[in-house]
Amino acid sequence: MSKIFIIGLPRTGTTSISVALLDMGLLVAHTAFTKKAFEVADAVSDAPCFSDFKQLDLLFPHSKFIYLNRELSAWLPSITMLLEKMAPHLDLKTGHFSPVLKRSFHQTFPTIHPLSERELAACYTKHQQAVFKYFKGRDDFLSLDVSVQGSLLKLKQFLGMPTDGDTNFAKLNVGRNVANWREYKHPNKVNANLAGLEHRKFFDYG
């Protein structure tokens, strides 16, 4: 069962690309924390995709992977703001976020908050290098910057989708807005905690 996985880090345009995929007619989960959510969605972005891309590559053969680039000068203040807001809820013992989300963030940002810009830049670089090394030479991988002119057209071409209409991404979830996906209404949105026969069980890869 092939999928589309968006494996860029948070605050690199995951909401913008997720909304674009919805508008292409795909079923999209912006974060997915159950087997059922992964099974139902055509495309999944954000946590835990950015930390679990190797496992997902094995679980869903013939899938496509899209890494999102963003200039560090713009990403650093944005991710700092996000982690400040999320930190209390990411605590491994007391945080109320999904255990899958907490694991994904802690694997990528080892101390969560506070992290200096130097430490955050190292997290970004480490993740990017791991992605590029793993997907080197593969034609099922695309690196994209959603702020670049023509980037939406590039995505459509990569996915084999009709190339008519917009060629650039809409700017969503900018500034201090971190809930834009929740507020965006669309019938193709997939609930991150969608329950199936195994209730809300996640994959066993750990």
Strand content: 5-15%
What is the molecular shape? Answer: globular
Q: What low-confidence regions span 5 or more consecutive residues with pLDDT below 50?
A: none
Order of helices and strands: EHEHEHEHHHEHH
Largest sheet: 5 strands, parallel
E-strand count: 5
Query: What is the rounded Rg?
Result: 16 Å
DSSP helical segment count: 8
Q: Could you give the order of strands across the largest sheet?
A: 2-3-1-4-5
Could you report the average pLDDT, rounded to the nearest whole number? 93
Category from helices, strands and their pairing: alpha/beta
How far from one another are the termini? 21 Å
Helix content: 40-55%
Set down the secondary structure blueprint.
Layout: E1 4-6, H1 14-23, E2 28-30, H2 35-40, E3 43-45, H3 49-59, E4 64-68, H4 72-90, H5 99-108, H6 117-134, E5 141-144, H7 151-159, H8 180-183
Parallel strand pairs: 1-3, 1-4, 2-3, 4-5
Helix pairs in contact: 3-5, 4-6
